Amino acid sequence: LLYPSTLWLFDEPFTGIDEECKKKIIKYITDLRKERSILFIYVSHDTDEKDIAGFQIEIPFHKKENNNII
After folding, report:
1. What pLDDT, on a 0 to 100 scale, did the predictor assign at position 69?
2. How deeply is 33 buried, as exposed, middle or buried, from its count of CB atoms within 10 A (0-12, 13-18, 19+)?
3. pLDDT digits (tens, 9 = 90+) for 39-66
4. Which of 24, 42, 48, 69 could anchor a disulfide with 62, C-beta 3.0 to 4.6 Å?
């Protein structure tokens, strides 16, 4: 937030934060995202966070060949 950027990376940013604070922070950053046209790359294991923020989810998958994951 101190330096203007068009790309923000989040890696499990809300681990250990209570639900009420999490919702307030998510609202704040999603408002900033819309206002400044910022691209988020957001990593989380909590799928409920994407519902709060309205994030689009991309789930990577692995292709199996000959019983090996590549």
Report:
1. 54
2. middle
3. 888 777 776 776 666 666 666 665 666 6
4. 69
